[in-house]
Amino acid sequence: MTTAYQQGLRAMESGRYRTAVAALQTALAERPHDPQVKLWLAMAYEANQQRELARNLCRELTAHPDPQVRQQSQQVLYILEAPQLQRRAEWLNEIPPMTEEPLPGLTLGTPKQITPPPVPEPVMVARSQSNYFVPVTLAGLSLVLAIWAGWG
User: Fold this and answer.
1) Residue 64, H or E segment
2) CATH number at residue 11
3) Which phi and psi (to 5°) does residue 71 adopt?
4) Structural domain tally of the chain?
5) By C-alpha distance, which of 43, 34, 35 is closest to 9?
C-alpha cells in the first residue's frame, strides 16, 4: 500500500504538481511533525505557482530543532526568495503540462506487431580430409596434353 507521501513524491517526479500538493497535504495531516513532508510540500507549492504558501512553509521550517532541516529549509527559502530574472518570450519554449489523459486531437494508432525474422536453417558443413583430387587431376591432364602435343 502506498502512502500519501509516496504518492506525492511520485506526482512531483512526473510533473503532476496539483496532484502532488493534494497528496502531500494529506500526508501532512497524517504526519504533522514530519519535516520532510513539509519540505516536499513547499516545493510542490512552488511548482504549482503557490509561492507564498511555499515561502511560509519554509520559513516555519527554519525554526526547526534539527540543524539539517533548518539548513535545507534555509537553502530552499533562499532559492524561493531569489529575484525572478526577466526573460524575453522568444527565449522560452512552452512545454505542455504532463497529464494522465491524452492530449486533445492526438490520436495514436494501434501498435504494429513486430514479427521476428525467421531463423535460418543451420547449414551443415562437411569436414573431410583433402584427398588431393584436384591437383592430381590437373597434373594428369597436363601430362596427357603434353604427350598428345608431342606426337602431333
Assistant:
1) none
2) 1.25.40
3) -65, -45
4) 1
5) 43
Q: Which domain holds residue 8?
A: 4-80
Residue pair 51/43 in contact (Cβ under 8 Å)? The answer is no
Spatial distance between the Cα atoms of 115 and 86, rounded to a whole number of angstroms:
53
Query: How does pLDDT run along the chain (152 residues), one tens digit per residue?
Result: 568 999 999 999 988 999 999 999 999 999 998 999 999 999 999 998 899 999 999 999 989 999 998 898 899 889 888 887 787 888 877 777 666 565 566 555 666 777 888 888 877 766 666 677 888 888 988 988 888 888 75
CA distances from 9 to 6, 24, 51 (A): 5, 8, 19
Cell of 94: 512552452
State how far the Cα of 26 lies from the Cα of 49, in Å rounded to an integer: 19
Residue 109 lies in a domain: no
